[in-house]
What we know:
Number of domains: 1
Shape: globular
Mean pLDDT: 82
Distance between the termini: 30 Å
Low-confidence stretches: 10-19
Strand content: 25-35%
Bound molecules: zinc ion
Order of helices and strands: HEEEEEEE
Oligomer: single chain
Number of strands: 7
Number of helices: 1
Amino acid sequence: MADMNHHPDGHPASHGHGHGHEDSDEYEDGNAMAGPLSEIFAVDLTSAHGRCANCGITEPVARLRVYTRAPGLVGRCPHCAHVTLRMTRSPDNAWLDMSGTTTLRIPLTTT
Ligand SMILES: [Zn+2]
């Protein structure tokens, strides 16, 4: 069950340790990815559906397992743990690696 309102400041996650491995079992849901992505895309990506290049399952972006302790944000398929989305942010640029996603279906609302 996804608690959308949990606060990440509940535990002393010390960033800047330089471990660099993204396989710890601490992860957040796709909203952690969709927030920064909304700076790039003018659509709500939490309701977008991405198809995993590894297992072929289509899931909403909001259901990705997002590892925020890796360099940048790493989104993994909730079924096979394949890396489907990767986003790295610098002050001037954002890199978006979608090589693990075959298609991204974005619902368009006319409001
Ligand atoms: Zn998968």
